[in-house]
Amino acid sequence: MREGFIFDLDGVITDTAKFHYQAWKELADELGISIDEKFNETLKGISRMESLEKIIAHGGKETAYSEAEKEELAAKKNTNYVELLKDLSPKDLLPGVAGFLKAAKAKGIPCAIASASKNAPMILDKLEVSHYFAHIVDPNTLTKGKPDPEIFLKAAASIAVAPEKAVGFEDAKAGIAGIKAAGMYAVGIKTTEALPEADVVVTDLTELDIDRLLQQ
Ligand code: B16
Ligand code: MG
Q1: Reduced 3-state DSSP string for 107-138
Q2: CATH number at 4-15+89-215
Q3: Which of 10, 115, 119, 130 is most buried as measured by Cβ atoms within 10 A of its Cβ?
């Protein structure tokens, strides 16, 4: 019997990937680096600074910027990204999310967020779902990003659920790898990326039967 749910944010609760892409593309254009939607797939679930490093490497400019300049570039991207989120509202929840969180709450199943995004608390507030989560892991406290299991283990500990009693929800390959390395049951949310390591893959949360999932 499963006792707790751990959710990724981008791609599971809401689709912020399109806004990340828009903001990164604007910055990349300014730097004279060309990125496309296919390249953007490789940025899913990856931290802000790692994403910037990948973009710079993609443009062959690994040595062009100092650490301070990279901090400034990442901050610039984030300012644009946050601006793009200004109209985010409950209508931007992915299908089935509101119903699933409500059902989990009614059953007394604790939920936590394991997202690489430092904007997660603000995004959850705008989506009006913060009250469903007992804890949001602070990415500033992590020593390693996904696919390392650290974020999922911290999330499970925060809701006092043993990893082998937890279910993790992820849309990114690196995230599924992290959930499996943490010893949890992994639900993959299908996007364009295949998720062969997931225990079950669905298009969205409307496809899940919560009682059956708890019995896994
Ligand atoms: P921020 P997730 C991730 O969210 C995104 O998929 C990734 O593209 C982004 O770079 C990362 O959050 C950091 O976001 O710049 O807001 O701190 O999928 O882990 O919920
Ligand atoms: Mg994600």
Answers
A1: CCCCEEECCCCCCHHHHHHHCCCHHHCCEECC
A2: 3.40.50.1000
A3: 115
